[in-house]
Write a structure and sequence with these properties.
Shape: elongated
Number of strands: 15
Helix content: 25-40%
Structural class: alpha+beta
Distance between the termini: 43 Å
Strand content: 15-25%
Largest sheet: 6 strands, antiparallel
Radius of gyration: 32 Å
Length: about 425
C-alpha cells in the first residue's frame, strides 16, 4: 500500500523542494502544522533530487520505517534557469512492503512526465500554489486508485492519458519435475484467448489431475521444455496445484492436519460432494443427502497407514469405497494437507559392478508391459538398463520419478531392482 506520493523539483533559490504531496503535510509539513512527517525530507533530499549523473535511474532507499522509490529526471535546456529543469515524482511505502511492482509504476510515471514536459512544458509552466493544480490532482488520483483498485486511468490532455496498473508479485513456483501431476484450481478454458501461446493452448486440454508433466508433453506432441515453461506460468499465477501420480500401489498416511476435517462439518460436506461418484452424486442432489457421511469419511482417512497400498486398503473397505471415487478421495486429502504420500526410494548399499561377468543377474522371462512401459528401451541389453538405473540409486529419487524418466511401469522397475545386488528400498 502506498503511504504517500510527492512531486519535488530543484528550486534555483531553495534547492530541492517538495511542491505537491498527498496526503498534505505528509512529507514537508507547512508552517504551523502539527502533523509529523513520514520522514525528514532535508536529510534525504540529495537522493530525491540528485546530481545529473544519477538522474534517469530508478533510486530506492529506506528510512527506518519507510521505503522511497523515485526516478529523478534532469532536462537540460537554455530556456530553464541554470540551463536545466530537475524534477522527481516519488512513492512512499512501508519498509517491509515488496516493491517490485511499484518500481515499474515509478519508472512509467517519470517517463510520462518527462514526455509531457518536453512536449508542452506541462510541469515547468504550472504556476499553481503547492498542493493545488493539475499535478497535485494527478498525485491524489494516483494514490487513491492504486490503493483501492490497483490500477488508474487519468486523462492528462487531449493527446495524453496515463494508464497505470499494479501487477501483483507472487513467490517463485515450486520446482516442476516430469513426474508431477498438475491439477487446475480455476476453469482454464474460460481464461483462454486465441492469441495465447500455441504451446499453452495445446497443453490445457490435457491438464486433468491425472496426467504427469511428461505425459502432457507426449499427449500434446510438444517439446517438454516448452510444456514445462507453460505449466510453470500457470503455477506462478496460482492456477494449478501439483500432485503425485495416483496409483493403487502407492501408500498414503494422515497428518496432524486431519483434525481440521474432524472439527469442520462444512469441509466434511465439501469432501462428500467431491468424492461422490457421478451417478451417486446426481442421486444425492435429488435426495439432498450425500452418499457417504462426513463421519464415515473421517474414519476412512484415519484407516490409511504407511505400510499399506491403496489396493489393499480398498479391498479391506470395499463396502463403502464402492460408493466414492478413490482418486478424488486421496486427492482431496492431499490438497487440504491432511494426507501425505509415502514415497519409495532405492539405495545401492555398495557400488554396482558394470561388467557382465562380475554382475550377478537372475534369469527371468521378459515381463508383460503396459502401454506406457512400451516406450522403454529394449531389454536385450542388461548393461544398458543397469546404466540407466545407476544414477537413481542414491536414495534421492522416488519411484514415480524413476518410472517417469525411464518410461517403465513400477512392476518392471521392481523386477529390475531385484536383479541387482545390494539395493535396499526405503519408504519415507
Amino acid at each position: 500500500m502506498i503511504k504517500a506520493i510527492f512531486f519535488s523539483i530543484f528550486d534555483v533559490h531553495q534547492g530541492p523542494k517538495v511542491l505537491h504531496q498527498v496526503p498534505t503535510d505528509s512529507i514537508a509539513p507547512s508552517l504551523g502544522s502539527s502533523q509529523t512527517p513520514l520522514f525528514h525530507f532535508p536529510s534525504v533530499s540529495s537522493y530525491i533530487i540528485p546530481r545529473p549523473e544519477f538522474c534517469s535511474r530508478l533510486i530506492t532507499f529506506c528510512t527506518p520505517t519507510h521505503r522511497i522509490l523515485s526516478q529523478p529526471v534532469c532536462l537540460p535546456s537554455t530556456s530553464y534557469p541554470r540551463n536545466a529543469y530537475t524534477f522527481s515524482i516519488a512513492l512512499v511505502l512501508d519498509a517491509s512492503t515488496p516493491f517490485a511492482s511499484y518500481a515499474t509504476v515509478t519508472i512509467k510515471l517519470a517517463s510520462l512526465l518527462q514526455t509531457l514536459e518536453e512536449q508542452s512544458r506541462f510541469l515547468s509552466r504550472d504556476a499553481s500554489a503547492p498542493d493545488t493544480g493539475k499535478i497535485y490532482a494527478l498525485c491524489e488520483i494516483l494514490l487513491e486508485d492504486l490503493n483501492n483498485y490497483s490500477e488508474s486511468m487519468i486523462p492528462i490532455d487531449d493527446s495524453n492519458t496515463l494508464n497505470i496498473k499494479l501487477f501483483p508479485t507472487y513467490p517463485p513456483p515450486p520446482p516442476l519435475l516430469p513426474h508431477h501431476v498438475p491439477l487446475s484450481t480455476v476453469q482454464l478454458e474460460s481464461l483462454t484467448d486465441p492469441n495465447w501461446d500455441l504451446t499453452m493452448l495445446r497443453v490445457l486440454p490435457h491438464i486433468n489431475g491425472i496426467n504427469s508433466v511428461k505425459q502432457i508433453a507426449l499427449l500434446a506432441d510438444a517439446d517438454y521444455k516448452l510444456v514445462r515453461k507453460a505449466i510453470e506460468h500457470l503455477l506462478y499465477y496460482g492456477c494449478l496445484l501439483l500432485l503425485d501420480i495416483f496409483s493403487f500401489s502407492a501408500s498414503y498416511a494422515p497428518t496432524a492436519e486431519l483434525v481440521s476435517l474432524i472439527e469442520d462439518v462444512d469441509m466434511q460436506d465439501e469432501c462428500a460432494r467431491y468424492v461422490a461418484l457421478p451417478s451417486l452424486e446426481d442421486k444425492a442432489i435429488v435426495s439432498h443427502a450425500s452418499p457417504v457421511s462426513g463421519l464415515e469419511l473421517v474414519e476412512l482417512y484415519l484407516k490409511l497407514k504407511q505400510c499399506q497400498t491403496i489396493k489393499s486398503y480398498y479391498i479391506e473397505n470395499s463396502k463403502i469405497m464402492d460408493t466414492i471415487d478413490v482418486r478424488r478421495f486421496i486427492t482431496f486429502g492431499v490438497i487440504k494437507g491432511f494426507l501425505y504420500r509415502v514415497h519409495r526410494y532405492a539405495i545401492a548399499t555398495s557400488q554396482i559392478s558394470r561388467g557382465k561377468g562380475e554382475r550377478r543377474t537372475k534369469s527371468r522371462q521378459k515381463p508383460n508391459r503396459s502401454a506406457n512401459a512400451a516406450l522403454s528401451t529394449d531389454d536385450t541389453d542388461p548393461d544398458s538398463h543397469l546404466l540407466d538405473l545407476e544414477k537413481f540409486l542414491d536414495g534421492t529419487h522416488c519411484f514415480d520419478e524413476i518410472c517417469t524418466d525411464l518410461m517403465i511401469s513400477e512392476q518392471e522397475l521392481m523386477t529390475r531392482l531385484k536383479d541387482l545386488d545390494d539395493v535396499q528400498i526405503i519408504c519415507r
